[in-house]
Amino acid sequence: MSQVSMFSSGQEFANLLVSSDLLHHSWFTISDLRNHPYLNNPILVKVYPYHSNGAIVAFVSSPTCTLQKEMVSSEDLEGSQSPFDFISTKRNPHFSVNKAAITLFASLLNELSALKEQLDNVSPLIITGVSLGGSVASLFTLWLLKDNNKRPTCITFGSPLLGDSGLQQAISERPSWNSSFLHVVSNHDPIPRSLISPTNVFAGSIPQSCIYNPFGMFLLCSDSDCSCFEEPESVLDIMMEMNLNSQHQDNRFLAFDYEQVLERLKDRVIFKGASQLFYFSVDQLQAGIDLQLEAIRIGGQQTSNMNPLRTKVKKRVEESFAKKRNAFDPGKKLNKMKEAMAWLEWYKKVTLKEGGYYDSFKRSEYRGRDAVKSRQEIVKHQRVLTKYWKTMVAEVEKMPQREETTFRTRWLYAATNYRRMVEPLDIAEYYMKSGNIDYVNLGRSEHYKKLEEWRKEDNPSGSGNYRRKSVSLTEDSCFWAYVEEAIINSKRLREGSLEEKENATEHLVNFGEYVMKMIWSYSVSSEIFQPQSSFMNWWQEYRQDILSCLPNLRLAFYMENREYQSYA
Hints:
With about 575 residues, the protein is α/β, with parallel strands linked by helices. About 50% of the residues lie in helices and about 10% in strands.
């Protein structure tokens, strides 16, 4: 019981398919389509009804089709009619697919384009195929998955591997895509393994740049049992071992019949694959792996390669565990981030009368032990938040365009609050170091720039156009950096050379226009007008210089007439 339960997880995808009649229904459509005349068509496609509102789309390639190891790169596909540029991601911009499969797909492109539209409201939607027809079924499924409203399930029988590691990794980046594929493979069918091993006559000598890689879930079957695997490297290792022990080493493109295989699958226990295991001891892990290998008649053969294979699969499992444990999951740390933000919000509230949030943090080292202790606590939470959001930005940057947009929309509000709350603290620390200037261009972290860019893309016209009350958090998280630069340039205006005074004058004019725009749109917090704030200190220190050198500055009129007293 314990060993069986180890291989049972919340995702019962394989068990559901095997215990239902879905595999049998899929194979029935393939068997039926095989009886149709091919005429001069290299591949046939037909839609079969399934349940009340569902459909099974079957693909069968002609026996005259030949399997070749040659691939076509994504760059070459860009100039063709094949619509697969969307597969590329920022992390995996390049991929290659089997040339024979893409050629067959292209021959059906017009028919499949019309079929794609017809399948809009079909559910459940099953795409199936055998041999090279299975490869075309996988390509059609990928094309359907491009649209968020379609969730097909692809079931292939004896299909050769479709593409390289770039394709496999790009698909794996979208978990919902990877879980849409189930590949049924018999240990007596040489076609699925034909592009793996150089010893196989179909593959020939495969260059390292043309290695095929699996994706999706594999249901590997022997005469007496079967087992599911999903971890790509484990699938390769096991299929390589199946290759070495296969009696089918001739060069015929066999049309393997999976009907008998499916009959044997009924009422069998399906052990979940390596990437779906729970955490358990090393002995349990090895026992579970042995059970899986034995199920597909690899363990029982006791070949000379058996121990290395077990070692390889065990290593793949452990690597998969480590990868999943180390994967960034923003939801898991959300409560901790809320707690850290709550600390900063508390600090902002209690320091309002001490010159405001920014200046209290900046001057706390000179305000006694309690102030220093509070600052240390805030710095701790500041570091936690910054680490979290830097990781978040890095992960989102790796996502495909569609997933990136969805993810950004979901988290952008929290990200904007973080930036407006935390970046002023970074600015304070930056200008506390003697000689530091121009934070925006020389000191600003890239993750702040990216979060601000996403905010502008999400709201290009800006916010606050109809606001009648000031914000609690200044919208421009770099506001205090501009104040610090105004202080530096006001000093140059007073003491600098002629050239420095000219540059300072231009800078202060721009600063004045910037601040007035923020005030008129109520986009700046009223805390900037607290008596001890850096902004008020700037005005009080350099008031006469500004009034003398910049008499027409609108900000000077505003401050001199104390209009800020009514700002709220």
